[in-house]
Amino acid sequence: MNDRALLAINDIAKAFRGTPVLNGVDLELRSGEMLAVVGENGSGKSTLLKIIVGLLEPDAGAFRIQGTMGYCPQESLVFENLTVRENFQFFGKAYGLTDWRERSVRLLERFQFAQYADYLISKVSGGTRQKLNLCLALMHDPDVLILDEPYSGFDWETYLHFWGLTEELLERGRGLLIVSHLIYDHDQFSAVHELVDGVLRCD
Known about the structure:
Layout: E1 5-16, E2 19-30, E3 34-38, H1 45-52, E4 60-65, E5 69-72, H2 84-94, H3 100-110, H4 126-138, E6 144-148, H5 156-171, E7 175-180, E8 191-196, E9 199-202
C-alpha cells in the first residue's frame, strides 16, 4: 500500500485577542490511515478543523494536502429548499462530475435513504440530513476525508454502514481524519490524538 503523506500539519499556531488556542500543532495523515483528534470543548478542535479546511488562516506554521479533500461538518450545509436528489445534483455539478446521478444512486442505496430522494430537506429527519451531509462529502471520492462528529444522529444500522465504508476507503489508500469530543472505537483508528493546551498528544 502506498503510505504517502496526504495531509501534513507543521507547527500550526493560532491565538484570538492575545489568547493562544493552538501552540504548535503537528500532525501527519498518511495513505490508508484513519486518525482521530479528540479534546474537550474549547480545546481548539474547531479552530484546527477550520484551518485545515481553509476557513481560517493560522498565525504561524503550515499545512499541505496531497490530492483532493472532502469535508463533512457537524452542522449540515445542505439546501433546505431543495430535495435530497437536487442537493446531490448541485454538489455534483460543483465538483464537476458528469456522472453525479450514478454516484448519488450508489450512495443513496449504500446508506439506505433512496426513498427520500425526492423529499425536500425541510421534510426529512435530522438523521437523514446527516446521511446526506456525509454522502455529499464522499461524492467526489476525495483522497482526504475530514469528518467533524460524523456519526452523531446516526441510527445503529447507519453507524455500522459507516465503519464498513471507512474500511473500504482505507483499503483504497484514502486518509481519514475524524474530529470528535469523544471516541469509543479506539481500535478502529491508526492513532488517537488528544488536543491539550494547544498541542496534540498521541494516546
